[in-house]
From TrEMBL:
<dbReference type="InterPro" id="IPR023005">
    <property type="entry name" value="Nucleoside_diP_kinase_AS"/>
</dbReference>
<dbReference type="GO" id="GO:0005524">
    <property type="term" value="F:ATP binding"/>
</dbReference>
<keyword id="KW-0418">Kinase</keyword>
<comment type="subunit">
    <text>Homotetramer.</text>
</comment>
<comment type="function">
    <text>Major role in the synthesis of nucleoside triphosphates other than ATP. The ATP gamma phosphate is transferred to the NDP beta phosphate via a ping-pong mechanism, using a phosphorylated active-site intermediate.</text>
</comment>
<keyword id="KW-0460">Magnesium</keyword>
<keyword id="KW-0963">Cytoplasm</keyword>
<dbReference type="Pfam" id="PF00334">
    <property type="entry name" value="NDK"/>
</dbReference>
<dbReference type="InterPro" id="IPR036850">
    <property type="entry name" value="NDK-like_dom_sf"/>
</dbReference>
<comment type="similarity">
    <text>Belongs to the NDK family.</text>
</comment>
<dbReference type="GO" id="GO:0046872">
    <property type="term" value="F:metal ion binding"/>
</dbReference>
<keyword id="KW-0479">Metal-binding</keyword>
<keyword id="KW-0067">ATP-binding</keyword>
<keyword id="KW-0808">Transferase</keyword>
<dbReference type="GO" id="GO:0005737">
    <property type="term" value="C:cytoplasm"/>
</dbReference>
<feature type="binding site">
    <location>
        <position position="58"/>
    </location>
    <ligand>
        <name>ATP</name>
    </ligand>
</feature>
<dbReference type="GO" id="GO:0006183">
    <property type="term" value="P:GTP biosynthetic process"/>
</dbReference>
Length: 139
């Protein structure tokens, strides 16, 4: 089915001018970028976004990293977009990411791993709604 997923191009990638490189891999995978904006995430936004990880030992580091520079938030649309984008991203740990994936090409470490993608339809809807209003998404 046609789905939407939420994507973030993280500060390690924007800092190295990799927005276009990531977008090329997204589009070549058959996903359409139906919304996109470059923002500086506030601490409150990052804490809300990653609330599910608030008890993890790396939570502070994660919030600090995600607010350390610009990010590009996106909505991607396509057939099975959630699983498809996770396949294009590759494993969270770039050392385990397959050839041809975004993280294999660009990620620096498990924390500075260049991109985020939603893990399920329910989280995709919540994440999209945190950053986009309906009229900003043009399918
Ligand atoms: P993301 O998919 O954005 O969602 C949770 C993030 O936590 C994940 O990407 C990683 O970047 C980050 N993360 C997971 N494990 C670790 C870790 N051990 N140390 C630092 N960051 C981590």
């Amino acid at each position: 089915a046609i789905q939407r997923t939420f994507s973030i191009i993280k500060p390690d990638a924007t800092e190295r001018n990799l927005t276009g490189g990531v977008n090329k891999m997204i589009e070549e995978a058959g996903l359409r970028i139906v919304a996109q904006k470059r923002i500086r995430m506030t601490q409150a936004q990052a804490e809300t976004f990653y609330a599910v990880h608030s008890e993890r030992p790396f939570f502070g580091e994660l919030v600090e990293f995600m607010t350390s520079g610009p990010v590009v938030v996106q909505v991607l649309e396509g057939e099975d977009a959630i699983v498809k984008y996770r396949d294009v991203m590759g494993a969270t740990n770039p050392a385990e990411a397959a050839e041809g994936t975004i993280r294999k090409a660009y990620a620096k470490s498990i924390g500075e791993n260049s991109v985020h993608g939603s893990d399920a339809p329910e989280t995709a809807a919540i994440e999209i709604a945190q950053f986009f209003s309906g009229n900003e998404i043009v399918g």
